[in-house]
Amino acid sequence: MFGKRRSFIIMYFLAAAVLLLTLTGDGPDALRRFSGVHSERVTVSEPEITITRSEIALMEGSSWETILYKISSPVEGPTVMVIGGIHGDEPAGYMAADEIASWVVDRGTLLVLPRANVPAIEKRTRNAPGEPDLNRVFPGDSNGGPAEEMGAVIMELIIEYEPTWVIDLHEAEYCERLIPGALGQTFLYPRKADSLDIVEELLTAVNRSIYNEKKHFLLLRGVARGSAAKGALMAGAEGIIIETCEQMQIEERIQYHCQVVSAMLYTLGITVY
Ligand SMILES: [Zn+2]
Prior knowledge:
Layout: H1 2-23, H2 27-35, E1 52-58, E2 66-72, E3 79-83, H3 91-100, E4 109-113, H4 118-123, H5 146-161, E5 165-172, E6 186-189, H6 196-208, E7 218-221, H7 228-234, E8 238-245, H8 250-267
Parallel strand pairs: 3-4, 3-5, 5-8, 6-7
Antiparallel strand pairs: 1-2, 2-4, 6-8
Zinc ion binds near residues 87, 90 and 170.
């Protein structure tokens, strides 16, 4: 009798455990979905360090005036530049970059230009009124119109600060997985670039943190002539374009951009905290 009862209790707990596993069936994957790569953040236990934050105005006094944020750690490390808002109708890119501009890094330097094309962002259009596509003017022209001048300013920043990577945040209307050529949810990495190993490591890390496989990023090779990523290459940096898919909610797209940048910094040995 007692044996039967004990068996029943064991069976009961087993059933409860199975039910619990079913309810939280996604297990660690579900956790990763919400915590993303940020779960890799660690508390810095080394001696206190003072992080320097600077705000640098670009094209001051013009309708294109915008701020470059420079976040520097005294601990030696790579410099990484993040650009958002090259296209004014791709909000997740510049909204994520706004958030990234508030990050603190444990080593190296993080340069963030959240809103590269202010007049286009204000109009919510791809290009500024009457101006060419900012992502086709690189290396820019300091004697040209405002878009070409901004291209030249960004080139000067890349040459001056020598980032190892320039990460340019964009959006596409549809997802590449559903409509080939649509470019949503992809990394675009130039064909003639040398750090494919880092990009593949990044892709693996980011996709591991995304529960739904349909939302995994794809890696495509090649970027448009005149793009900021191409400009980065011309200036001796690595360039990559991150494209989210506008069929998803804006909060999710912003999170993906932040996740990718955080994972890239982590891959390069920089911890965000
Ligand atoms: Zn774009």
